[in-house]
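Minutes, project check-in

Agenda point 3 was the complex the collaborators sent over. CS summarized: two entities, 1283 residues total, and the question is how they sit relative to each other. Sequences were read into the notes so everyone works from the same version.
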Amino acid sequence: MTKQPTTMDTTCPYCGVGCGVSAKLKDDRIIAVSGGKSHPANLGALCVKGSALHETMGDHGRLLYPTIEGERVDWPTAIDAIASRLTTIRETYGPGAIAFYLSGQLLTEDYYVANKLAKGFIGTSNVDTNSRLCMSSAVSSYKRAFGGDAVPCSYEDLENCGLLVLVGSNAAWTHPVLYRRMVVAKQTNPAMKVVVIDPRRTATCDIADLHLPIAPGSDGFLFMGLLGWLQQHDHVDEAYIEQFTEGFDPAVAAAQQFSFSETATQVGIDEETLETFYRWFAETDKTVTFYSQGINQSSSGTDKGNAIINCHLATGRVGKVGAGPFSITGQPNAMGGREVGGLANQLAAHMEYTPENRQTVAEFWHTENLSQQPGLKAVDLFDAVAAGTIKAIWIMGTNPVVSLPDADKVRAALEACETVIVSDCIAQTDTTATANILLPATGWGEKSGTVTNSERRISRQRTLTSPPGEARHDWWILTQVAAKLGFGDQFTYESPRDVFVEHAALSGFKNTGNRAFDISGLSALTEQQYDDLTPVQWPVNQANPQGTARLFTDGRFVTATGKAQFIAVQPKGPVQFLSADYPLALNTGRVRDQWHTMTRTARSSRLLNHIDAPFVLIHPHTAEEQGLSENDLAEVSTRHGSVRVQVQVDEGMGVNQLFVPIHWNDQYARKARVGALLAPITDPLSGQPEFKFSPAAIQKVETPLWAALISDRPLDCSGFIDWTMTPMANNQGFHYRIATAEHIDWSDFINRHGSNAEGCAHYCDSGLGDERFICYQDDRVKLAIFCHRDQSALPSADWLKDIFSKDMELSPWQLLAGRNMAQADKGRLICSCFEVGEKQIVHSIVNGTCSVKQLGEELKCGTNCGSCIPELNHLVNQTLKVDAA
Amino acid sequence: MINSLAIIGTGMAGARLAESLVAEGYQGAITMIGEERVNPYNRIQLSSVLAGDKTLDGLPLLSEDWYRTHQIKLLSGDPVVTLDGANRNITTASGWQQQFDGIVIATGSRPFIPSIPGNNLPGVMAFRTLDDIAIMQSFAEQGSRALVVGGGLLGLEAAYGLNQLGLDVTVIHNSDTLMNRQLDARAANMLKDSLEGRGISILTGARSAAVTGIAKATGLQLEDGQWLEGELIVFATGISPNVDVFADSGLQINRGIVVDNQMRTALPAVFALGECAEHNGITVGIVAPIWDQATVLTETLLGRPASYHPREHSTQLKVSGIDVFSAGNLKTDADSRDIVISDPLAGVYRRLVIRDNRLQAALLFGDKSQCSQYEALIGSGQLLGANENRLMFDAALT
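CS then shared the predicted structure for the full assembly.
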């Protein structure tokens, strides 16, 4: 055992950028992380989430051993139980009664074994993945246009382009490292233009030369309008169209159904601005259209993708340096899942369910059980669970009770399902609560395998520390179950490398160039070579042994005819309409410092300092119309459900639009699962739900009293009007913000929570509902409660965490003051890296700092990961504006 | 013009007035005549001396030198027995007689001992003078049991002092809560716990019926039939103005000698201050208002305009290690705002009563920090503004 720190390269487990991470290790712990300097995705940079990875480690809150119906069991018992339940169900109801719901956070090797076991040996095609929610529309549109699920671009194209069109992407917050690359590219090449297309004015608009706040869901009209305009103004590349594409005429005919001014009306943009965008697109050969969930999460997401691709085909801008339609995924291994065939409509290795492909795969896998036809996509799959036609579902590494639309129905379906198996790292999630069998899986830093990022680059995630408790790798668990089911001969894997080389071999098996995904060049890797694998972009085969930066550079596609396909898209708006009862358009998305359902990111208290509670963004006019003010508690409701969130008035919002983040769930808030609001409306081709548009209403919730609490143990807050919670590092403490009715009996609350604190200092002000408690033991605060009618009178979370984390420096009763008079409150955290708060920044600006650069020199904010620079810019502009007024 | 002034009484009020007159440049002759055989001393410190927390050295209010330097004639141990108010002529017990231009009466008060059987038995006493300390100390040497009747400020200080002397002490208090004029029930209970924690027994809601004993006190019979053994029985059941001797002097006397805002009695050039004086129907029993009265009377005697207006004053219990501070009126109703802090484990209880944005009362138990600021705020009636909300933690108003 070495005592000297060692360094190991791995890959970040968050978004689809797939950054390299260099981890410093000591005594089986990760003591620091930094951006992998040689990794082509990030070249040493790392966003704030990635920078906090080491803070998310530790055994607390982890699932440590298998359980069956809540009882601890050993692994052999758990494996036996799974095998026996699956066998019974398969024999009684057929293989289709068994479903797998996988995740873009699984490693490719785990994914491959799950897919092989399910589709190849159990014989069910009901295998889908949370990637369905993320980029399946992008997959469908690539397949329609190019004949395969193949992203043609490389990240370098973002730097080499002359025009960057960001559509439905708040990259500044969701893909911060790519956003930094864009910022630097624009600084290096001032001629480069950036257009942001988003109903919201987001942090990403910071670099926009043009922001098109289009009507929600009108992207299809915008890009079909662009195709028509390009044709009308002779900006199409006729030679390219002629030589390499098919279907241009019907596509153009569809595009020209609407006049330019009709399009402008439809998308809600004035004609001059719209023409500027169209003209820039027409004039700039090196154009990248960078799109994400704003396009994909739509009832016509596939069409929207094709509307974008149409414009690139019409101008011949595919497979060229600095040009292409570039879909960015939200998960670290959405691409890997696509490659192994983890989606219900795929078989394996970019093969669809054709008789020929079935034969190929059956032959490769030596199986007679291969599933027959495409299975149920996520929303339909959980409907089948609800209907009882699926009897057993195995959920790996994902949290569908939070993330799926109509999420309350999903929860009810799982609660009613006879066998719910959940493999996860985290003990308590909204989904593990529904499990019959719980399996502790290894997480990032413990498991080993590969992931593929948004530019098709395969990178290694490596084992850095020992897994806690009895946690096991998913591929190992699946292999054990496969053996128990009698398929041991075909599941002889002893390491991730064994899985990977088989997967690589299958990608090349009978691949005559008709499948873009081909990594046969990696099918002979030794353990050592696999361990040492450096990031490489597929295809990796005999023709391209070093990988491939761009696809379709020669204009040859993987369609039946070898030609790319234009799609005659009929642009559509969202399926649902606004009504008198639901007059507002609800949009959803991510925030900067959280990821997915917070199971990992909420383990870093630093990441919770940026935004610590769920909220709704609303335009000032709409807020006024709805009788709402900043920080009011509001209930946002749709026909399907409701959430309680705090109002944030935001001029960047469109009028009559709302935005609620996707992350919060029952672990961190009373009622903030945005999934519960969303209709299970999906794209007919991709099955991807419409997350970005829901008719909604908003209403103020009366909050007679507010309270801020810090506790050494989780508190049962179910009786309150509302609560949100943020855990401190290592679960050493829990910070709550509570809204409650009048006449709350806090003493009773304290007694019920069995705090072992011996002392309790109490402050009570009859006039203001102002009540405060410091419960303490031996110089340490165990529970603090501050309650007041006025939310702004409560002490900051920072201060509470501070007094909780150290020996009391004042008498307990003096702490009841709720603030240390001497120490200024630094305000909401803006720079997570250097822990610089809003008040500090504003103070500095007021005192003469007038640029982000100077702020960096003075306070260091924004000088590490840079994720906060858009907000710093905003603060500088805002503060100077107010100052001048 | 008052060229000769007699101050009847050598207690704290008289001494304070003399000192103040000298300081303000009074040029006439001052004669002080008193019952106690010692020079004026700080009576407030007696309980601390009894408890051994302070020594006798610190007691005298003014030095011998001071009387000499300013030619103050001091007649100790010779009480005035007759006052001819109209002629400002006084006669002392020794027969000494003199007429003065002006007379100030500062005879203070006498302990009030309830008229129950046996209240004159040896062993029954009050606690007011230096002599009383000597008596108590002699009981302590005999290892007696002490019963203190009265759980007000003075009774508790006496009990604490006796306890410090090693006596086995029980406090008998007729109200249900200790110091019921200054404390609310909660603070009183904490005080009871603290004192009991020091080995002092406390009986509340207990009324004494008789002192038992024939040749000397042997104990106290309570109205509820309970008998308590004790050879030393200290009554701290209040005071009454020491004015009997002036019954025929021509002064207007109710409970005390009636004075106006300038501390003048009904007779020309006769004044009164301190516990023997009654202003607007009120007699005082603590030192702070007497300081105000002395200031006003000094001005009056110097022919300068001044007027006495009673203020709220604070009370502090002088029991080492038990911080108790009370000021103002703790009465609350729908229009008042009550801010309360309590920490039973730490023995801290603090309460502020605010009315119309002004501090009306402060009760601090266990931690008196900022008590003088609170007292000033109560006294001045200053508007608190927005500081009302943080007053408990920060009394400094800017």
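Noted in discussion: The mean pLDDT of chain B is 93.
Follow-up: revisit at the next meeting once the mutant set is ready.
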